[in-house]
């Protein structure tokens, strides 16, 4: 249940991020409203899986770099993870599109802030 709630929160945050950051966009597989919503949910699910598996591994392996840079390297790592989601969704032919590395870093920063704010409101239970 928590995964579903978090996926919806990230999908909503991604939708808002595409309005704020010019270099981040989502291309649905059809031009219908349902297809657009499903595309955002699919991209959010892909981002959740990539962030949990690959992001978690990177955070463990690169822990000394996180300490040395006082956590600032996390902006770069999150931007690269967003670019990885762009690449994975590009393989299926629709989904997230990021115009470059720095747009990815800015998009990841905005996405993280917005999903944190929405998460404060929603607060999924620890079931």
UniProtKB/TrEMBL annotation:
Any one Pfam family here would be Phage_holin_4_2
Q: Which UniProt keywords apply?
A: Membrane, Transmembrane, Transmembrane helix
Transmembrane parts of this sequence:
33-58, 65-88, 100-122
Q: Which InterPro entries match?
A: Phage_holin_4_2
Keyword Transmembrane attributed: yes
Report what the protein is called: Membrane protein
Organismal lineage: Bacteria, Bacillati, Actinomycetota, Actinomycetes, Micrococcales
